[in-house]
Write a structure and sequence with these properties.
Radius of gyration: 20 Å
Structural class: alpha/beta
Largest sheet: 6 strands, parallel
CATH architecture: Alpha-Beta Barrel
Oligomer: single chain
Shape: globular
Number of helices: 16
CATH class: Alpha Beta
CATH superfamily: Metal-dependent hydrolases
Number of strands: 13
Length: 434
């Protein structure tokens, strides 16, 4: 870690738990400070949405600055105003020019909440997100010149709700329910493809072609392996459906392994989880270990013959710890196997866009530049410090301004993921086309 990173690392500001109604995410009484008043005045709807990706937040006691804006569809339209760092016109222009030369990838995203079923919504967690806004999200992707994003379905979406301070599964699946919902969400992705609203993203060449033509390729992904149930053949079926990445677990402790935000049940991956890893290797589906425990990650790395990915997380620091962050040892497991880790612009330990750039550099210092990527979790993030694809050029601009070479920034912004993507598909038998 660079000395200046240590000096700038934000410190958690403890807030008395009695001040917060965690089911609502807002305080009962207006705080005294102007900064906290700005947060307090946000609507109940937006505040609940900010909690969605922050399991266990009460244990951390974080607060965010008034400049943070949640990823609600009516609140994330404006460009980033308070970067927390200086970026002059020439530096910003360098970021724009960079996108014209290099393919870039967001390795974890939910653009426009595409996966949601139509309202009305009964679950508080789902109501808090608002209605899908796919058209605007796609326009932002194209305007921002994002070459590709992993459009992630959410396998356990029908189970999720807020429970006190934590997003968790409120019940178990009924037989066949997870698979049926996978098919529903997949159909939404296929509709976007069929209407030519996104380019195909079946292989690295598709991403590079999208960059050359000023398009955005959709790489289909699923967050949670619940839909597989106990059917290994579902992995090959997903590949034929166009899915290129499956995150084994999410907020539901499923049949494959343990999750970071709950007490362990399986002590890693289950025998079925290990079999699924082998099957994903066989058919050419990238293994995403976001939300998986250290033990589950260790099991997956030991079983897999291909590189793996943690699509959206950051490192624990001396001042910030959270169940969704990982240790250096955890990160090193993935890097040692040739994989990549997507740095996540959440409001956990990050107050400004500049803090996010620090997190990217911290991760690169820990595991090496070849193992870092960008995973925004757009548009289901927690108090994002990067919130609009129209500002995509600011990430390479800031990294270049901080002294990284164009070659290294190109690796972080897309080349590292494309290398792992290519390794996942290498020597894969069977059809690769829709």
């Amino acid at each position: 870690m660079c000395p200046e990173l240590q000096a700038k690392c934000p410190r958690a500001h403890p807030m008395r738990e009695s001040q917060i109604v965690w089911g609502q995410g807002v305080s009962k009484e207006a705080p005294e400070s102007g900064e906290d008043q700005a947060i307090w005045r946000r609507s109940r709807r937006a505040a609940v949405g900010q909690l969605l990706a922050a399991a266990g937040l009460a244990a951390l006691g974080l607060r965010t600055s008034g400049a943070d804006v949640p990823s609600q569809p009516d609140e994330d339209k404006a460009p980033l105003a308070d970067l927390g760092m200086e970026l002059g016109p020439a530096q910003r222009a360098a970021g724009v020019a960079f996108l014209a030369r290099h393919p870039t990838v967001d390795v974890h995203a939910h653009p426009g909440l595409f996966w949601l079923s139509p309202p009305p919504y009964t679950a508080l967690a789902r109501r808090s997100l608002g209605e899908p806004f796919v058209g605007r999200a796609l326009a932002d992707l194209h305007a921002g010149r994002v070459s590709a994003a992993l459009f992630s379905c959410v396998a356990d979406t029908e189970l999720l709700d807020l429970s006190g301070t934590t997003l968790r599964a409120g019940r178990e699946f009924q037989p066949g329910e997870a698979y049926a919902d996978y098919q529903r969400q997949l159909a939404k992705l296929q509709t976007l493809r069929d209407r030519l609203e996104v380019a195909r993203g079946l292989k690295p060449a598709d991403v590079r072609a999208a960059q050359r033509h000023g398009q955005t390729a959709a790489v289909f992904a699923v967050e949670g392996g619940d839909f597989i149930e106990d059917r290994l053949d579902r992995v090959g079926e997903a590949f034929r459906d166009g899915v290129r990445s499956i995150q084994l677990v999410h907020y539901h402790i499923n049949q494959l392994g343990d999750i970071q935000s709950e007490a362990p049940v399986h002590n890693g991956l289950t025998p079925l989880g290990k079999a699924v890893v082998r099957e994903m290797n066989s058919v050419g589906v990238l293994i995403d270990l976001a939300h998986a425990t250290f033990a589950a990650t260790k099991d997956a790395v030991e079983v897999s013959t291909r590189p793996v990915m943690i699509s959206h997380t950051n490192l624990v620091t001396q001042t910030v710890s959270h169940p969704r962050l990982i240790s250096r040892e955890h990160a090193a497991l993935v890097a040692a196997a040739g994989g990549v880790i997507g740095s996540w612009p959440s409001g956990i330990g990050q107050w400004t866009f500049a803090d996010y750039i620090d997190s990217i550099r911290r991760l690169a210092d820990a595991v090496g530049i070849d193992h870092v990527a960008i995973g925004t979790d757009m548009h289901a993030n927690y108090r994002p410090v990067f919130r609009n694809y129209r500002d995509w050029n600011l990430i390479p601009a800031a990294l270049l301004a901080r002294g990284l070479s164009e070659k290294d920034v190109a690796k972080i912004m897309g080349q590292n993921f494309l290398r792992v993507f290519d390794a996942t598909l290498a020597h894969t038998p069977g059809p690769r086309e829709w």
